[in-house]
User: Fold (2Fe-2S)-binding protein from Candidatus Sphingobacterium stercoripullorum.
Amino acid sequence: MAEEQNKIKVKIDGITVEVDPGTTILNAARKIGGEIVPPAMCYYTNLEGSGGKCRTCLVKVSKGSEADPRPMPKLMASCRTSVMDGMEVQNVTSEEVQSARKGVVEFLLINHPLDCPVCDQAGECDLQDLSYEHGVGQSRYEFEKRTFEPISLGDKIQLHMNRCILCYRCVMVANQLTEKRQHGILYRGEMSEISTYIEQALDHDFIGNVIDVCPVGALTDKTFRFKNRVWFTKPVNAHRNCDKCCGKVTLWYKGEDVLRVTGRKDEFGEVHEFICNTCRFDKKQTADWILEKPTEIASTSVINSNHYTSFNPPAVIAKNEKLQLTNQEQLKRTERLK
Ligand code: SF4
Ligand code: FES
Assistant:
């Protein structure tokens, strides 16, 4: 009961939610879920100090609190602003927020190449989704985009600085999950770049997590690169007894082959239990794992195309023998998956 009294009320896009004091607007919105949740490119729940870098999560605080109802004068980064009792926030219902987000996307794309057709992150890239929602067809930037040669971070990780949006998530993984930090952001402003100080290999059991936390295709898995498009693969949750990490992963299948192994992401694209390099890079046989169930993927995600939990063949197939024959393989596969 005492706990109940401590909760504070906040209204986001007209929906009221009760949260603990100290909760950020972003996390309060996540508690409601759905379309009103602001996008977040740099905040990551399990990385201490993350957030406040990318500005994609901007919202309008139209009422500060019950005690001081004045609106906040500027749009606020929802990942870094705590809720107050009686606060009212606008995200999708504010024209101002939508237009600011459009501006943020334009800034993020100033140097980011539109190489989605050849980028391994395509289909699960936060910036790609954001660009579809808020981007415009043409850039107003007249200067040349800055370019870098791809850098090999050891034998398992590839860095494409061209695609980096400087969200700092990978730096925090290196800082917080490994014992010695060998990589960080060098220089300032337009010159900033992720570096490993003379391209030193990032040699640590948990460093593979930089791939999972990178919101774009700047850090990719060399053991998966160019092997397939993510929407042709089928994610399945699996686990194994691992003495280094939780051993809970998602296996990405193409046919019978495990093409890659990643940590399990929640509906906001975040991994909560980080996995070790052995699970990620060295266990690519089904026999290494105990399979659980198909991974749940948002119905709006391109990864969900072609899938699979309950295939309902159009009624016409059941009635038409010729169609049944031509779809035999697909129907058999469906039976197996039931
Ligand atoms: S490489 Fe990826 S995770 Fe690291 S700062 Fe750049 S965008 Fe963020
Ligand atoms: S997610 Fe809030 S500033 Fe990046």
